[in-house]
Write a structure and sequence with these properties.
Order of helices and strands of chain A: EEEEEEEEEEE
Order of helices and strands of chain B: EEEEEEEEEEEE
Largest sheet of chain A: 7 strands, mixed
Strand content of chain B: over 45%
Number of helices of chain B: 0
Shape of chain A: globular
Oligomer: heterodimer
Structural class of chain A: mainly beta
Helix content of chain B: under 10%
Radius of gyration of chain B: 14 Å
């Protein structure tokens, strides 16, 4: 069982560069979300999706875009990377909105 | 305001002794409550969840938590710590209301002393 797969695991970007963090799940879950984890802050929700074609903003959406063209994939795009976006990013999926989340292994992003 | 507070950022216990990780929440609505564990350089794994059934919830690896509405608490316990329990633990509240907020605590790092 692959579960939730995130790529890449590590990435270094220069300020101003753009990139896409990939997230795929093979559990046919409707609900998917992106979080960032910073020391002492817990996880903060960036964007989420309740199904293909539907996305919404979370707590810290600025500087990030998402789309959900299929049930399986939920990529996160950084439009113009900034050092403040240095963080560990986690993608998660849930069978439905009110059930527990299954997390990917994370992407450690450094913006220099 | 809705929130979740993990009262200790670090907890150290000796191997074989009990573990207590404390979590308090504030909510005007009936919440779902979760505990997740994160081992170093890994993703988060669900330990247990409370969704308004039994107030004492048993999870994986010998952990359990008790929902106490009067104290708005959901503390995580384990009778006997093992070295492999060293990790960071997150208490998570999901508010079952129209806003459907998910709130993570800031985490408690558990250290196991040999």
């Amino acid at each position: 069982n692959a579960g939730v797969t995130q790529t890449p695991k590590f990435q270094v970007l220069k300020t101003g560069q753009s990139m896409t963090l990939q997230c795929a799940q093979d559990m046919n879950h409707e609900y998917m979300s992106w979080y960032r984890q910073d020391p002492g802050m817990g996880l903060r929700l960036i964007h989420y999706s309740v199904g293909a074609g539907i996305t919404d903003q979370g707590e810290v959406p600025n500087g990030y875009n998402v789309s959900r063209s299929t049930t399986e994939d939920f990529p996160l795009r950084l439009l113009s990377a900034a050092p403040s976006q240095t963080s560990v990013y986690f993608c998660a999926s849930n069978p439905s909105r009110y059930t527990e989340a299954f997390f990917g292994q994370g992407t450690r992003l450094t913006v220099v | 305001a809705q929130s979740v507070t993990q009262l200790d950022s670090h907890v150290s216990v000796s191997e074989g002794t009990p573990v207590l990780l404390r979590c308090n929440y504030s909510s005007s609505y009936s919440p779902s409550l979760f505990w997740y564990v994160q081992h170093p350089n890994k993703g988060l794994q669900l330990l247990l969840k409370y969704t308004s059934a039994a107030t004492l919830v048993k999870g994986i690896n010998g952990f359990e938590a008790e929902f106490k509405k009067s104290e708005t608490s959901f503390h995580l316990t384990k009778p006997s710590a093992h070295m492999s329990d060293a990790a960071e633990y997150f208490c998570v509240v999901r508010l079952m209301n129209r806003d459907d907020k998910i709130i993570f605590g800031k985490g408690t790092r558990l250290h196991i002393l040999p």
